[in-house]
Design a protein that fits this description.
- By secondary structure, this protein is of the alpha/beta class.
- It has two domains: 31 residues; 110 residues, Hypothetical Protein Ychn, Chain: A.
- Helix content is 61%, strand content 17%.
- The protein has a five-stranded parallel β-sheet, sandwiched between helices.
- Helix 2 links the parallel strand 1 and strand 2.
- Helix 2 packs parallel to helix 4.
- 27% of the residues are buried.
């Protein structure tokens, strides 16, 4: 009887440990270490001193495993016209920040080709942004 009880207790402990390990793996999948930065503003100071600086650091300092910069709205025009911001965004891409831009916005400002020349993936962004949100990415907007 004692041997059976000992085996049952041991089995329960092992099952509990296995459940704990599986739960940790599930938690990792649902709380992905991912950041999408939605850059919409036309202020060059906010772009340089806040948005791009934080986004770049989030990737290079490994605060997040995956970092995406989404250029949307007036930021498209600002980026196409500002050489210093272009240098910064190009450097970010080289350091592993994924660069994307809204094609509709880029076309409204006539800058789609310029953004592509900077290495930015220019495409429809409504669905990808919705997917980031549905997959529980952290989304930060400037």
């Amino acid at each position: 009887m004692k041997k059976n009880l000992k085996n049952i207790v041991l089995s329960l402990i092992l099952c509990g440990s296995l459940i704990s390990i599986l739960a940790q793996d599930i938690h990792k999948e649902t709380t992905a270490d991912t950041l999408a930065v939605l850059w919409t503003g036309a202020d060059p100071h906010v772009a340089e001193k806040v948005c791009l600086m934080y986004t770049h650091a989030a990737k290079t300092a490994k605060w997040f495993d995956e970092v995406v910069l989404i250029v949307w709205g007036p930021s498209s025009k600002l980026l196409a016209e500002n050489i210093e911001l272009q240098k910064k965004v190009t450097e970010m891409g080289k350091d592993g920040v994924k660069l994307q831009a809204c094609i509709v916005c880029a076309n409204m400002y006539g800058v789609a080709d310029k953004l592509r020349d900077l290495g930015i993936e220019v495409k429809g962004m409504g669905k990808p942004l919705s997917d980031y949100l549905k997959r529980d990415w952290k989304v930060l907007t400037f």
